[in-house]
Specification:
Length: 209
């Protein structure tokens, strides 16, 4: 119908709803608000979105339950969200923006840290447990499902026993910071692939790279 209207009149029907034309995606980077958390490992989700926004020349705006930025690519609309609810209440922000923008669960991508993966390793999955991550646990409880797309960014586990909290809330080491920009760009490419090619192709191309 849309193609026929364009052929006949040169434009799409104004009666067509925007959501019928534009596919929407919600990409959420998990982290904690506050300058004291800016360069910490636990805030890798925020760092990924900040880097992606820089490459797209986007500016985040303060919004309900988080900072948001919007961009479009090849007929898709991607809403970037950095929740302001702190990590342990991430589900509230995710649920609100999914409902507000009418975004299906299949078009949701959560970006988070994972100490069980070597530093810089990327692992995209469509389901799974929270793995002890408080942000994922709250999202799981709020959405009432473990089946949602999540990108885990490896932090490594080079910390003494009992010092996990200090490690994840600590700053990146000098050697890690040298590699981090390339890893963040790789995450940005993964987001683009997820939106344009789908989760299965993206997993095959990016996992463990």
């Amino acid at each position: 119908m849309r193609t026929l209207l364009k052929l006949l009149f040169g434009y799409s029907s104004p009666l067509l709803k925007e959501e019928d034309i534009m596919k929407k995606y919600l990409v959420v980077g998990l982290g904690n608000v506050g300058s004291e958390y800016d360069n910490t490992r636990h805030n890798i989700g925020f760092q990924v979105l900040d880097r992606l926004a820089d490459t797209k020349e986007l500016t985040f705006a303060s919004n309900k339950l988080g900072a948001t930025a919007l961009y479009k690519i090849k007929g898709r609309s991607i809403l970037l969200l950095k929740p302001s609810t702190f990590m342990n209440r991430s589900g509230k922000a995710v649920h609100y923006w999914m409902e507000k923008e009418n975004i299906p669960k299949e078009h949701l991508l959560i970006i988070t840290d994972d100490i069980n993966l070597p530093f810089g390793t990327l692992r995209l999955k469509t389901k799974g447990s929270d793995g002890g991550h408080n942000g994922l646990a709250d999202i799981q409880n709020t959405l009432q499902t473990t089946q949602y797309n999540r990108l885990r960014f490896g932090l490594g586990s080079d910390f003494p026993k009992g010092r996990q909290v200090d490690y994840v809330l600590g700053n990146w080491e000098e050697e890690e910071q040298k590699t981090l920009p390339e890893r963040l760009d790789r995450c940005g490419a993964l987001v683009t692939s997820f939106v344009l090619q789908g989760v299965n192709i993206t997993m095959n191309e990016f996992n463990n790279t």
